[in-house]
Amino acid sequence: MSFIRGALLSKQTITTMEYRHLHLLKKQGYINGEWVNAKNNGSFPVLDPANDKVITDVPDMDASDAKAAVDAAACAFKTWRDTTAKERSSILRKWFENCQKNAEHLAEIITAEAGKPLIESKGEIVYGSSFLEWFADTARHINGEVIPSPWPNKHIMVTRHPLGVVSIITPWNFPFAMITRKVGALLAAGCTCVIKPAEDTPLTALAAVELALQAGVPKGVINVVTSSRKNAPGVGKVLCEDPQVGCISFTGSTNVGKILYGMAAKGIKRVSLELGGNAPFIVFPSADINNAADQAMLAKFRNNGQACVGANRFLIHQDVFDQFVQCFQSKIQDRCILGPGNKEGVTCGPLINEAQVKSVSSLVDDAVSKGAKVLIGGKIAKSIGEKFYESTMLINVKKEMKIYEEEIFGPVAVCLKFKTESEALEIANSTKSGLASYVFTKDLGQAFRMSRQLEFGMVAINDGVLSSAEPPFGGVKESGIGREGSKHGAEEYTDIKYTLFSALDK
């Protein structure tokens, strides 16, 4: 995570690159141990969001390809589930080492297709690889239980078993880390998978899987189906409803998550859903204001605001509101440098696509039309490109504005005043989402009260970055079901079996 922190805390030198220099660039899907085209021979272009240039074309697979991938994963599961934990650990360790050795190449692909600055892409590789390292260790510690029996001649044993084929549907904002966090966990547990990467960023997934194959992952254990938005519904239906699939693991919007949850319900399948957030960033009078503003830069402008744990609402106590806003605004002006991700000095790249630009623009325009005040930014930086939205700060935001309640998913900081701790809690909890939250205070009792009373799956005290491999990542309410990372991340992909041994005195 040090790379990510450095991207917004200081300016960095970044070397330019060209698409032709992208090592690990794969142009086919991967099913049952083979790089393949779509059965329909269709393809779609992957674009650089900074300039809309075509990086390459990839297969536009449909439901028939998805079915072949599920069949391959189901066949491979029959043998993979019986491998030892030690063997699975060894393969995951080799995958981790391969990613470390190829970090530069992986980062270049992320920057090309996701647009984020190269320094942030490198940070994502460090972060994503840490899950492979963690689950390499965790594979050997997925333990069962021996429970004291109420009967003198019986023995109770509880064991964990891999649940089968897992459908993995990943987002575009962290195209490497969201794969390693899921696939590392399920491989450790003994499952197999089919990955459907986001249509905007499939190249990172293909590169990561190439390194997994080099690490010794057997054919059929990991499969990758690439598809455009046109074919995504058909592919998704297979991945959610095929009877051979035991679990659907999805990271993305709450609306799509609800659709997938409904489809999974038809087969009573396990789901692991990491959905939208609406993170409050709460600053109390006792806080170190300069540190809070530094951490606000990380919590808001990492990946140009395109993060589910990104700070969405800045709730600032009235006694320090002006001080915080002035400090935060100064840091935005100094550190948010817009431009293509491969350009020297850039810290904020383009938004991923036109739909995202329209969404952010419409939220800001609606707020301004209803009385919000723009302190900095507030528009598309058309001199750079159509997808570059200026780093923005708004004040005088009211409840009737859409931006007050909706997840922004862009580089816009909304600052609101509050008077009391109870008022801050009321505003923070007044959302259907409950993923991440941030609190800044030097009052230890207040920190514990906020941790207990905030209705969020994760609470960071005096820090703007809370993600790592060791703790459980996930939310409450409509922000999802289940946890990723930590030992709980691997246990998500297991079923518990209770075995009763009786007549032991015979």
Description:
With 506 residues, the protein is of the alpha/beta class. Helices cover 39% and strands 20% of the residues. The chain contains 16 helices and 20 strands. It has helices spanning 2-9, 63-80, 85-101, 103-114, 118-138, 177-189, 202-214, 232-241, 254-265, 289-301, 321-335, 354-369, 402-405, 421-429, 444-453, 486-491; strands at residues 29-31, 34-36, 43-47, 54-59, 145-147, 155-162, 165-169, 192-196, 222-224, 245-251, 270-274, 279-283, 311-317, 373-376, 392-395, 412-418, 436-440, 458-461, 480-481, 494-501. The protein has a seven-stranded mixed sheet with strand order 14-15-16-13-12-17-18, with helices on both faces. Strand 8, helix 7 (202-214) and strand 9 form a beta-alpha-beta unit. The chain starts with a helix and ends in a 5-residue tail after the last strand. The model is unreliable at 9-17 (pLDDT under 50).
Average pLDDT: 95
Q: Please, what is the oligomeric state?
A: single chain
Identify the strand order in the major beta sheet: 14-15-16-13-12-17-18
What is the rounded Rg? Answer: 23 Å
State which percent range the strand residues make up. Answer: 15-25%
Percentage of residues assigned to helices = 25-40%
Strand count, sense and closure of the main sheet?
7 strands, mixed
Number of strands: 20
Q: Report the uncertain regions.
A: 9-17
Tertiary shape: globular
**What count of helical segments does DSSP give?**
16
Structural class: alpha/beta
End-to-end CA span? 59 Å
